[in-house]
Amino acid sequence: MKPPESPVTPESPPSIHILPAKKPGLSKKTLLIIGIVSLIVLSAVAYVAVFPVMKGLSPSKPQMTPVPLTVVPKETPYTQPSKTPTISPTKTTPRQTLEVRYGESYEQVYSLNKNFAFGQKEVFSQVLTRPPLYIKFNLTPVIITRQKVINIGLSSEKTINATYTSPNAWFEVQVIDAGTGAVVDTQGFNKEFGLMTKQEYMVRTPGNYKVELSGNDVFAEVQILIGVS
């Protein structure tokens, strides 16, 4: 026989504990962010409110008035003026000149002070009825200065300034018979004439003459005279 079954006691349902709902709150991190943002906003408000006042109290900077720029011309070093070409009229006022060398007086009919370059010419005509035709000229050739090394290779080697007359300087006076075109006489400087810068000569035969002056790299002072009646 089966033993009698013991009565089954039903289990009581498990008790459920309901926790009270937490009140909504802010975390520390959120509070920190809010604090920083608030501090920035307050600083900005204070800057906007206070800075204009402080700016008004601060001394104002003096305004700079622009000064117009004055350009001072650069001083040009003084240079001695060169001889200026001066051409006297072909026919000058008759003027008698006593030439001590010849013990005679002559009448000046032409004078010229001029720089000659590139073979430039000047022409003077004279009908000679009172010989002689007396021609005088005084020349100043162009002078060149260059550096030159001397005693090359020696202990006394040095550089000096060498000064000499321009090799291109020359001057020529031709007396031409105006009727035939024949050259009556020719004098000058350099080329085949020598290096005398001061010369004078005469044409003693009456006639119709043309005097041609030409040259290069020279300043010429020329006088033409005739005899006195």
Structural description of this entry:
- By secondary structure, this protein is mainly beta.
- Helices cover 13% and strands 41% of the residues.
- The relative contact order is 0.19.
- It has one helix at 28-57; strands spanning 86-87, 95-99, 104-116, 120-128, 133-141, 143-150, 158-165, 170-177, 183-189, 198-203, 207-216, 218-227.
- Strand 8 (170-177) and strand 9 form a beta hairpin.
- The strands form three sheets. Strands 1, 2, 3, 5, 10 and 12 form a six-stranded antiparallel sheet that branches. It has a four-stranded antiparallel sheet with strand order 4-11-8-9, with no helix packed on it.
- The chain contains one helix and twelve strands.
- The model is unreliable at 69-81 and 84-91 (pLDDT under 50).
- The radius of gyration is 58 Å and the shape is elongated.
Summarize the structure.
By secondary structure, this protein is mainly β.
CATH topology of the domain at 86-227: Jelly Rolls
**Strand pairing plus helix content: what structural class?**
mainly beta
Order of helices and strands: HEEEEEEEEEEEE
Calculate Rg over CA atoms.
58 Å
Highlighted features:
single chain; 229 residues; mainly beta; Jelly Rolls; six-stranded antiparallel sheet; four-stranded antiparallel sheet; 1 helix; 13% helix; elongated
